[in-house]
Amino acid sequence: MSILAKIAEIENEMARTQRNKATAHHLGLLKARLAKLRRELITPKGGSGGATGEGFDVAKTGDARIGFVGFPSVGKSTLLSNLAGVYSEVAAYEFTTLTTVPGVIRYKGAKIQLLDLPGIIEGAKDGKGRGRQVIAVARTCNLILIVLDVLKPLGHKKLIEHELEGFGIRLNKQPPNIGFKKKDKGGINFTATCAQTELDADTVKSILAEYKIHNADITLRSDSTADDLIDVVEGNRVYIPCIYVLNKIDQISIEELDIIYKVPHCVPISAHHRWNFDDLLERMWDYLKLVRIYTKPKGQLPDYTSPVVLPDEHTSVEDFCLKIHKNLIKEFKYALVWGSSVKHNPQKVGKDHVLEDEDVIQLVKK
């Protein structure tokens, strides 16, 4: 029996099962089995894994990477060529783009790499079309733009989300607040710091038993679902912010546009007419959460043209030094910082000081 047949069988059984307290345990087990089979699909067992698709592994350049995901012919290539000035072949038939086309834009001093990925079709996560490679590239992006046709958005949106979820990509979500620690002996130690509606000790034990884990500490710090627990145990999930770009707004009325604007994480644009690009760029910048640090050589004015761009979670002075060169930190004595992260301008700080957006820094070496 093939993996796909097994997955279909489990999905059918889950659809047949009524959801209530008595069946929660059984559903949790089925979900765990499903997650294991999905993982086998993504990473086939043994062997050298066959030839990878040509032109898919694009070298990472710039400060952040944004992937355009969408069905064929929704205007991804037009959007890329109008944003970045890169020519990605555009035509009126489906599947024009066959490999990843990279482009780079400069925005607020940061170099941002844009990837035009080939169209995703239904069943991509099961390896149909070029789907598996497309989604594998999408996993490495800092932000995903799901490009939708404004005339048929919702069906497409659900399908694409389903494909990405099946690949372990979680859109616009935070990692679940669950502590999970394997140990050598002592059985399963289960603690919940708040009331749980779905998980109880037995369900947790049975899900872990499915993964052949019999000794572990599990701490639930929020009201979690079986899916959250499986995500934590699998450990290969990536949490990526996502913007839904509704293209072709030149084909709808103003009233419809007003409704679209109220949808969260949505930006309506027209790639062909270049409408509303500034709003899209601004939204991309917000979601990427990049921090710009300006450098100041001693006795000169700060260089405001080319900032050093750091991701939001790594913005200490040490990270700043490592971004420039890994030997800098060995010679580091202290830094002078001007900006919103310090009380006095300038202030002498050590390597653990956390910088904020648009700070100016001057390094002093030993």
Automatic annotation (TrEMBL):
Location relative to the cell? Cytoplasm; Nucleus
All copies of the OBG-type G domain together span 64-289
Keywords recorded for this protein, A-Z: Cytoplasm, GTP-binding, Hydrolase, Magnesium, Metal-binding, Nucleotide-binding, Nucleus
Q: Which GO terms describe its molecular function?
A: GTP binding; GTPase activity; metal ion binding; microtubule binding
Query: Do you know which Pfam families this protein is assigned to?
Result: MMR_HSR1 (PF01926), MMR_HSR1_Xtn (PF16897), TGS (PF02824)
Q: Which GO terms describe its biological process?
A: positive regulation of microtubule polymerization
Q: Which residues form the TGS domain?
A: 289-365
Main location (coarse class): cytoplasm
**InterPro entries xrefs:** Beta-grasp_dom_sf, DRG, G_OBG, GTP-bd, GTP-binding_2, GTP1-OBG_CS, P-loop_NTPase, Small_GTP-bd
Q: Which GO terms describe its cellular component?
A: cytoplasm; nucleus
Q: Which NCBIfam families match?
A: small_GTP
Q: What is this protein called?
A: Developmentally-regulated GTP-binding protein 1
Taxonomic lineage:
Eukaryota, Metazoa, Chordata, Craniata, Vertebrata
